[in-house]
C-alpha cells in the first residue's frame, strides 16, 4: 500500500510538473510538429536626406516553394508555375513526381508575379518574403550610407551604426499540417505580421551632396589622383551637409570580387585616415598664438626663406624668402617662418594645451564607426626643432574631420562642436524616437580671436594664395595647404597632398569645407592651384542653391595669358606683377633659372588676381 501510494504521488507530481513547469515549452513543440511556419522578414527602415529625399529603401521579393505531397494535379501546377515564373515546367514536373518533400521553385519573385500566382489558385504552394536593399542613386554617399549583408544586417556606414533602429521585426505564416506536411482540411492559416524598421533622416543635404560628388569626381579624373575627398559642415552646429570621396563604387553592385577595393572604399577616409595637414594647420597655430596674447596683428617679421632652429635649417616653402611681412601678409603668403615664430613663442606646454583644446589627438565623436584620432609626438619627447615644424603643419597627423572641426571653432566664435550625420529617427507612427542636437564640447578661443581669424583668412582668399577659391561678389575665408608625403620614414619625392580649407560667409561662417586631392599628377600640386578652384566651384553652387545674396558686385575683365615659357624667372615675375597676377613657383629660384612650363597655358583666358603656377629650372 505504501509503495502504491508513493508511485501514485510520484505520477501526480510528474503530471503537475509537466503541465505547469514544462507546459509552455511542450505546447511550442506540439505546435511546431503540427504546423509549418514560413518566416516573413521585417522590412528595413528607409533613409532620407534632411529634406525628405529618399536615399535608401527596400524592395520586397519572394521565394516560392512547392510541397509535392500537397499537390494533387502536378502537371497543371507545373505548367502554371512555369508560365508565371518563367521556370522550366518539364523539369519542375519531374521534381514534383520524385520523392522530395520540398522544392524551391523560384527566387526573387516580384509582387506582381505573386499576385498572378494567387489568382491562379494553385495548391501546395507557399512562399517566404525576401527583402532587397536598394540605394536610389547608386554611387552616391557610398561611405556614409554603407551597405547590408545578405541577411539585411548593416555592415558599414549609417546602415551599421544605426542598425538597431533600421532593422524591422520579423513576422511569419503558420499553416496546420499532418505528419508528412500536408495541409489539413480544417487548416486555419495564421499570419503574424512583422513591422518595418524606423526611418532615418540624415543631416546631409541632397543638393549640396550632389555638388560635392560631381566636383570630387572631376578632380579625381582631371589630376589622375590617388584619391580625392571633400566634406562640407555647418560651422555653427556641426551638422555634416555633404561628404564624398573617390575612388568609390555603386552600392547596388558591391565589388565583392575585389575585396581590396570593397574594404578600402567602404570606410570614409575623411574620418578614418590620418595625414600630415601642411599649411591648413596654420589656422590653428595662428589662433593659439593670438588667443594666448603672445602675438598680435601688429607683429612684423623678416623671412629670408628659412629659420635656424637647434642648429638645423628649416626652409620656408618659398626658398628665396618673403622678405619683410606683417602678420596678415605672413598668413596670406603662408610663410613657414611666421608659424615657426608663433610655435616657438608658445612653447611646448602652451602648444600642446592648444592641441588638446582644439581636439587634436581626440576623436570628434561623429556618429559613424571607424573614426580615428590624430597623431603627435609625445609631449615629453618634443624637441624645439619638432615644435617649429609642427607650427606649420609638419611632424603632426590629423584626420580631415578632426582638422575641419577644430578650424570651425577658430572662426565660429570658439565653439568646438560634435559633428553628426543623423538628424532624427522616426518610427512608423511618425513619432521621433531619436533627435540629435548640436553639442558644444568646449570653447577653444575667445570671440575676439575668432573675429581676427575670420578677417585674416578672408584676406587669404581676397589677396593671398586662396584666390582661386573666390566667388565674385561673396566674402569667403580660407587657407591652402600643400603637404609632402612620406614613404619608409623619408620624404617621398613628387608625392603631395593638396588641400583647401574654406568657409562662407567670411564674417559669419555657416558653410565650412575641406577639399583634399591626394597625389595629383601632371605637374601642378600646390593646394592654391589644385584644390582651391574646386572649393570655389562648390561654394558658387551653394550660394546659388541657398539663395545667399552677394555682398558686392564685381566684374573682372578677362584677358589672354601671355607665354612665359623660356623667359627668365625674373622677367616672368615682372610680367606677372604688371598684370596683377599672383603666382606659385615649383623649383628653386637660382640665377639664370627659366620658366619651363606654366598653368594656365599661354592663350587661356584669365582675370586679374588669378593664380599662375610656373615650373622653373
In short:
The chain has 20 helices and 28 strands.
Describe the structure in your own words.
With 617 residues, the chain is an alpha+beta fold. The chain contains 20 helices and 28 strands. The strands form nine sheets. Strands 2, 3, 4, 5, 8, 18 and 19 form a seven-stranded mixed sheet that branches. β9 and β10 form a beta hairpin. α3 (74-85) runs antiparallel to α4 and α12 (282-291) packs across α17.
Global shape: elongated
Radius of gyration: 33 Å
Number of strands: 28
Please tally the helical runs, counting DSSP H or I stretches of 4 or more residues: 20
**Sheet having the most strands:** 7 strands, mixed
Average pLDDT, to the nearest integer?
88
N-end to C-end Cα span: 118 Å
Structural category is: alpha+beta
Low-confidence stretches: none
Amino acid at each position: 500500500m505504501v509503495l502504491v501510494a508513493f508511485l501514485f504521488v510520484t505520477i501526480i507530481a510528474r503530471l503537475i510538473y509537466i503541465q505547469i513547469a514544462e507546459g509552455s515549452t511542450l505546447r511550442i513543440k506540439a505546435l511546431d510538429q503540427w504546423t509549418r511556419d514560413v518566416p516573413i522578414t521585417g522590412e528595413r527602415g528607409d533613409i532620407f536626406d534632411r529634406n525628405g529625399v529618399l536615399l535608401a529603401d527596400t524592395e520586397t521579393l519572394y521565394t516560392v516553394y512547392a510541397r509535392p505531397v500537397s499537390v494533387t494535379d502536378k502537371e497543371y501546377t507545373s505548367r502554371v508555375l512555369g508560365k508565371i515564373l518563367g521556370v522550366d515546367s518539364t523539369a519542375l514536373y519531374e521534381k514534383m513526381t520524385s520523392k522530395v518533400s520540398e522544392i524551391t521553385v523560384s527566387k526573387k519573385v516580384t509582387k506582381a508575379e505573386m499576385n498572378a500566382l494567387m489568382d491562379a489558385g494553385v495548391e501546395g504552394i507557399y512562399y517566404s518574403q525576401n527583402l532587397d536593399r536598394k540605394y536610389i542613386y547608386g554611387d552616391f554617399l557610398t561611405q556614409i550610407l554603407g551597405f547590408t549583408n545578405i541577411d539585411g544586417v548593416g555592415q558599414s556606414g549609417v546602415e551599421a551604426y544605426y542598425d538597431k533602429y533600421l532593422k524591422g521585426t520579423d513576422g511569419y505564416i503558420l499553416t496546420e499540417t499532418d505528419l508528412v506536411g500536408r495541409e489539413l482540411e480544417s487548416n486555419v492559416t495564421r499570419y503574424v505580421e512583422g513591422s518595418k524598421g524606423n526611418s532615418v533622416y540624415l543631416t546631409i543635404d541632397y543638393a549640396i551632396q550632389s555638388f560635392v560628388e560631381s566636383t570630387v569626381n572631376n578632380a579625381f579624373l582631371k589630376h589622375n589622383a590617388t584619391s580625392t575627398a571633400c566634406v562640407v559642415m555647418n560651422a555653427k552646429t556641426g551638422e555634416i551637409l555633404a561628404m564624398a570621396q573617390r575612388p568609390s563604387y555603386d552600392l547596388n553592385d558591391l565589388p565583392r570580387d575585389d575585396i581590396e577595393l570593397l574594404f578600402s572604399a567602404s570606410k570614409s577616409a575623411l574620418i578614418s585616415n590620418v595625414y600630415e595637414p601642411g599649411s591648413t594647420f596654420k589656422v590653428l597655430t595662428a589662433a593659439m598664438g593670438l588667443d594666448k596674447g603672445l602675438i598680435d596683428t601688429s607683429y612684423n617679421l623678416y623671412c629670408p626663406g628659412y629659420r635656424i632652429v637647434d642648429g638645423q635649417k628649416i626652409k620656408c616653402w618659398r626658398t628665396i624668402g618673403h622678405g619683410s611681412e606683417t602678420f596678415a601678409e605672413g598668413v596670406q603668403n603662408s610663410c613657414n617662418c611666421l608659424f615657426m615664430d608663433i610655435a616657438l613663442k608658445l612653447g611646448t606646454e602652451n602648444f600642446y594645451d592648444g592641441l588638446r583644446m582644439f581636439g587634436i589627438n581626440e576623436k570628434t565623436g561623429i556618429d559613424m564607426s571607424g573614426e580615428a584620432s590624430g597623431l603627435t609626438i609625445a609631449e615629453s619627447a618634443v624637441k624645439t626643432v619638432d615644435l617649429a615644424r609642427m607650427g606649420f603643419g609638419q611632424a603632426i597627423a590629423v584626420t580631415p574631420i578632426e582638422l575641419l572641426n577644430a578650424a570651425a571653432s577658430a572662426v565660429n566664435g570658439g565653439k568646438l562642436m560634435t559633428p553628426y550625420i543623423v538628424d532624427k529617427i522616426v518610427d512608423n507612427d511618425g513619432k521621433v524616437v531619436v533627435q540629435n542636437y548640436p553639442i558644444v564640447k568646449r570653447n577653444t578661443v575667445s570671440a575676439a580671436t575668432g573675429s581676427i581669424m575670420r578677417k585674416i583668412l578672408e584676406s587669404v582668399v581676397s589677396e593671398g594664395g586662396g584666390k582661386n577659391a573666390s566667388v565674385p561678389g561673396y566674402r569667403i575665408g580660407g587657407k591652402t595647404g600643400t603637404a609632402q608625403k612620406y614613404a619608409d620614414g623619408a620624404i617621398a619625392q613628387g608625392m603631395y597632398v593638396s588641400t583647401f580649407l574654406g568657409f562662407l560667409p567670411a564674417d559669419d561662417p555657416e558653410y565650412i569645407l575641406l577639399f583634399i586631392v591626394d597625389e595629383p599628377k601632371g605637374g601642378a600640386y600646390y593646394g592654391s592651384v589644385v584644390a582651391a578652384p574646386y572649393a570655389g566651384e562648390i561654394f558658387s553652387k551653394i550660394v546659388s542653391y541657398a539663395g545667399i545674396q552677394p555682398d558686392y558686385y564685381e566684374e573682372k575683365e578677362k584677358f589672354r595669358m601671355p607665354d612665359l615659357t623660356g623667359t627668365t624667372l625674373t622677367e616672368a615675375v615682372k610680367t606677372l606683377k604688371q598684370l596683377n597676377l599672383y603666382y606659385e613657383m615649383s623649383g628653386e629660384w637660382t640665377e639664370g633659372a627659366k620658366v619651363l612650363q606654366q598653368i594656365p597655358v599661354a592663350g587661356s583666358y584669365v582675370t586679374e588676381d588669378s593664380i599662375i603656377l610656373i615650373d622653373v629650372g
